[in-house]
Amino acid sequence: MSGSPATVTVFSIVSDPEFGEECQFIDDCLQKRLWHEATEAILELTQKPSIRNSGAVYRIFTEVLGQPVQNINPLSYARLAAGAALQAPSKDDANALLSAAAEKVKDEAEAVVFVRLQSAQLALENGDDTACKQTVTECEESLGALSCAGSDVVLAQLHRVRAAMAKASSDASTFYKQSLLYLAYQGAQSLPPDVQASIAFDIALAALCSNEIYQFGELLLHPIMPILEGRKEHWLLALVKAFNAGDISAFEKAKSTHSREFAEQPALSNNDTILGEKIRIFALLELLRDRGASSRNVAVADIAKRCELPEDQVEFVLMRALSLGLCAGNIDQVNQAFDCKSVQPRVLEHESVGRLAEQISAWSDKVQQVAHVLQDCAPELVTASS
Predict the structure, then answer these.
(1) Which residues pair with 330 in a beta bridge?
(2) Which of 82, 193, 246, 276 is the most exposed place for a label (fewest CB within 10 A)?
């Protein structure tokens, strides 16, 4: 950022009356050398969807900010450089811009890491997975060498790139975990609605397809998920809710009602059988959770009914759940029952809280019944203990 007013103004680049006031404020700050205020205002402006998609970010960075960067926060400069690289005319221009930016902020480790992570993202998009992975590894080492863990904005960038790597390699479990970490540092509400919807859709898809994730309560409680309500992607949210409740009928209904959308997602349509097996494990877990601690010796016939399976296929579902560590217990083949010792606890979303309240109410009623029996049979004992 130069010490004299820029010859090209933000107002002249954007040329959109909707943002005229914001652009004029930025230009005034630049003239008055209010670098911090100008930078923050530019960062906020460049998050607007219409600005992000117009090419204005690249021009603001290259034509308005100028060459010297002594008066601008290095990390803010790195963030602007990353945004500008996304709108560069060519891949070569983007790489050149990021290389120059990294050199200018070379004395600030976090700023360098942020720029290099954007370079890793570009490498991934260009099909160079090896370069991307190597850059991410080096960035992790640089962050590990810092006295602190790193600022939220840098860690968000790191997990965003990690999630992109996982998506490119079709690693649903890693994508799910890294995306949630990205949102934890980034903050879902700071993202434009279209970006939120895209991330929410991909996370939900990953949760369904992962062979490691058998708990959707955390996902359904995440503030980014309601963005799918009222959108064309709402059908996927219905699938996730069906899985979370272990509701096979709701799953089949949603799949049938939105058969076209389901077929358009290869991750779902190509794994239809696996999804059928997975939701039956969810159904088994819900059955076990809904049983009281004193009634977890479950007949195979009850499991077959809940999971909508022939009885001779119940053992496969039980063995799968046991192998994943989702429950513990013994299969009694003589008495055709499963003696459940423990089951993975559910994350209590709203519907689960309601079911838990019913269980607590039933337990309270039993306690009251026992108290009445004791009082009737041995009133003097009850009186003495009270």
Answers:
(1) 339
(2) 193
Among residues 74, 73, 19, the alpha carbon closest in space to that of 46 is found at 19
78 closest CA partner among 47, 100, 56? 100
| CA distances to 29, 32, 41 from 5, in Å | 10, 8, 17
Q: Kindly report, residue by residue over 278-320, the tens digit of the pLDDT.
A: 999 999 999 998 886 667 799 999 999 999 999 999 999 999 9
C-alpha to C-alpha distance for 66 and 100, rounded to whole angstroms: 12
Write phi, then psi, for 191 (nearest 5 degrees). Answer: -95, 150
Q: Is the pTM of this model over 0.85?
A: no
The C-alpha atoms of residue 180 and residue 213 are separated, in whole angstroms, by 13
Other beta carbons within 10 Å of 93: 15
Assigned token pair, 25: 């404020």
Helix (H, G, I), strand (E, B) or coil at 297: strand
Tokens of 320: 């799968």
The terminus-to-terminus CA distance of the chain in angstroms comes to 79
Q: How far apart are CA 98 and CA 100, in angstroms?
A: 5
- Read off the pLDDT of residues 363-377 as tens digits, 9 standing for 90 and up: 677 777 777 676 766
Which residue has tokens 């090419």?
Answer: 55
Task: Find tokens 């055709």 and name the residue.
Answer: 336
